[in-house]
Amino acid sequence: MRETRAISTGRIIPVILCGGSGTRLWPRSRVQKPKPFLPLIGAQTLFEQTLVRCDDRRYFEPPIIVTGARYLEYVRCDLAARQAARIIVEPQSKNTAAAVALAAFRSPEDAVLLVCPSDHHIPDMAAFVETACKAAEVARQGWLVCFGIPARVPETRFGYLRRGASLGPSAYQVSQFVEKPDLSRAAAYVDSGEFAWNGGIFAIRACDYICELQKYRPTLAAAVEAAVQRGTECDEAFYPEADAFAAVEPESIDYAVMENTDRAAMVNAPIGWSDIGNWFGVHGARTQDEFGNSVQGPVEVVDCRNVMVDSDGPRVSLIGVEDMIVVVDGDDIMIMSADSADRVPKLLRVNAR
Hints:
Number of domains: 2
Strand order of the largest sheet: 5-8-6-7-11
Shape: globular
Order of helices and strands: EHEHEHEHEEEHEHHEEHHEHEEEEEEH
Distance between the termini: 49 Å
Radius of gyration: 21 Å
Strand content: 25-35%
Number of helices: 11
Structural class: alpha/beta
Largest sheet: 5 strands, mixed, barrel
Helix content: 25-40%
CATH superfamily of the largest domain: Spore Coat Polysaccharide Biosynthesis Protein SpsA, Chain A
Oligomer: single chain
């Protein structure tokens, strides 16, 4: 039996997922301090920016932060000047299906959870809040709602959502999920106007998510529920019981639930979203000069185009180059062509040999 929980206030509960492997934005990002806790776009960390987007108490409850023990200090540091949040500390990283389930089992059954990765960049906060409220309306009707990001270019790094039957203004059933298509299929999806990118942001009622998880991944659901029931509070954080949680098979919310349920929906989300998935994504989100260059730190560029340079100390000077990314972090220097940004994890695998 699940514990009896309070009735929700009607406001949305942000569920902010914090973690990461720290590989795609090396050398700045590391396992010890991954992307969410870096000030990559502006002075605030991406995690802080996520908190700010969900600050308006007219619409949002204080958030639930799901993170690992190694990141707890960073989380508490960024939370220090803000209203209280509830923190859930995962015994192990088990991917997003389990992380969201932890929050769902710790929330009122009728609460709408807004699942937010903490490492995305969303510049249009007003549009984000408007979209979140729209998604919550649809979720209260029993749908599990995805944010559908306008597919601007044929991107092969993202999953795609195909719009199905209308559920009202800017809301649709999801008729098809597509995981990371090749370039020709991605181009066809963009040209069709029927597809949006899957932004990895979801609005779901706690009871609906648990119901679907129990239907499609009953073992995972049972393990998370047991971990919550046996968990403990310590230093204003909740710790699920480690042995029960160890039985969880890691799986994303997309694979475990969203691609199986017949209750998947989407809302149009024109929020300026970027997943900041590589250094080229960082470059695109930063302010650029008239020649498409973005620089941070002691940097000089002369007669350059589409160049990004990020240095934490040593002076970097570039003359007459194009389509290049340079990142300096302490003793580590990485130089690559702009179209090689997705290959950074491969570099780390080579260096680990």
